[in-house]
Amino acid sequence: MTKIRLTKEFRFEASHALWHYDGLCKNIHGHSYILQVTVIGEPNKNEGNPKLGMVMDFGDLKKIVKEEIVDSFDHSVILNGKAPHQDFTKVDEMFDRIHVLDYQPTCENMVEDFANKIKARLPKDVSLFSIKLYETATSYAEWYAEDNQH
Fold first, then answer.
1. How far apart are CA 117 and CA 64, in angstroms?
2. Which residue in 3, 47, 59, 141 could disulfide with 111, CB within 3.0 to 4.6 Å?
3. Under 8 Å between Cβ of 64 and 71
4. Nearest alpha carbon to residue 43 among 114, 99, 126, 103
């Protein structure tokens, strides 16, 4: 049984602010996020299957990640639900793409949330191996399945 890993990269723009943070990131600021999603599985061996030789169709992985993350978060404002955000949600012209989350929107927490969303949509014979979320060109958070087995 040969296991193969596939990785697809995605990009989106978003802004966030960290509630009660003690540095500059307490202010709303933006990032050009880069998300790398890696899945693992065995290539399809069924000669009659149009997906012969594939662990997963890259197009199917793209569809999942775009629907769950990219299309939703791109050009949005991401805030901690504990922050006073009500004024933002009332201004549709500038804040019609706002995410009020039940967690602090750090790169670390976002990568965990993204992992859970992607895992729930993968085919039964494909597993999420890792996610890497770049917040800047030199800063990223990683999630690995092997580190999170309970």
1. 9
2. 141
3. no
4. 126
Topology of the domain covering 4-148: Tetrahydropterin Synthase; Chain A (3.30.479)
Pairing outcome for strands 4-16 and 76-80: parallel
* Domain boundaries of the chain, sorted by first residue: 4-148
Percent helix, percent strand, percent coil in the chain, to nearest 5: 30, 35, 35
**DSSP 8-class letter at 30:** E
Report the pLDDT value the prediction gives residue 25, as an integer from 0 to 100.
Answer: 85
| Amino acid 150: pLDDT | 75
Q: What is the pLDDT of residue 89?
A: 66
Distance CA 122, CA 118 (A): 7
What residues are annotated to the active site? 25, 75, 135
* Segment-wise mean pLDDT, segments of 10 residues, the chain, 150 residues: 95 94 89 98 94 96 98 94 72 74 95 98 97 97 94
pLDDT of residue 83: 82
